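For this section, I looked closely at the sequence of one protein beside the tokens encoding its backbone, which the following lines show:
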Amino acid sequence: MVLVSLRLEALEFHVVGPLAGAHPSQPATPSRQRSFLYPRSIHEVDNGRLLGFGADLAADHPGFHDEEYKQRRVDIARLAFSHEIGQPIPRVEYTAEEAATWGSVMRELEQLFPAHACSTFLQAYPQFGFSPDTVPQLCDVSEVLQRATGWRIRPVAGLMHPRDFLAGLAFRTFHSTQYMRHTRQPGYTPEPDLCHELLGHVAMLADPAYAKMVEAIGVASLGASDKEIWHLTKVYWYTVEFGVVQEGGCTKAFGAGILSSYGEMKHMAAGGAELLPLDPVALQPKMSYKDGFQKAYYVLEGFEQGTRKLQEWARQSTRDRTGHPTGST
């Protein structure tokens, strides 16, 4: 199965600098940025504060004992750190093994998309022309996305700190990794990889209504307190990662954690989880990500409704902090 278990522990994040745990022969690249509580543009969003990864893999990671794989991760991460906003995203020369992994994952998922992906995804997905025989390049995918909704992709070396990642959404920027999951277990990744980013996230961002909702999550994060950032991280988890909608009496996936996981998609289709209404303004339950598949999916009535509620939450939160409401976007 493909189970993306993003390792977040409340706000007790172990934030590390660029290329944490890098191979001794590859010294870390200094961060070029500092973090802004209220960034004014994507140039003020730091993509160097990571929650680990690089070559410092957990003991249960499929590539933990593979020194060549870990060095490969470091090399690809360097491309992200060398990238300057406004310049073309560096191309990665993927190996034959990496290409085979991409093809295997894509073929498995495309068998399930017609029955279990939401109509928005099915309409947007063909725009990208993904092929199981060729690993896509972020620079090419970003151009398609920009034409569709004005969003862009920015490369990142690993899992970002939530404040920085959410801030990027406010500027219609999706931060994406470029490395591939380990070939030994193509059906599993313990962190976001290229398969998860492109087959799960990108197609949905080509839909204007959905993209507006995701942008609203980002806008709500600007200037937010740590407590509010954690709330929005959960909202993101239950919508962008594991959200579902009802279409024709059936449960359909729009969350990337489902769309990029054939195990999770089958679990959803089999009715293996409780379906609950989602109110993005309400207190969110603890995220479930270490104990197998999701125990509950939260149903969103529509992306426009989600956007309105998030904008109202942002206005109320700003009013509580400053005494003055902020405008919606």
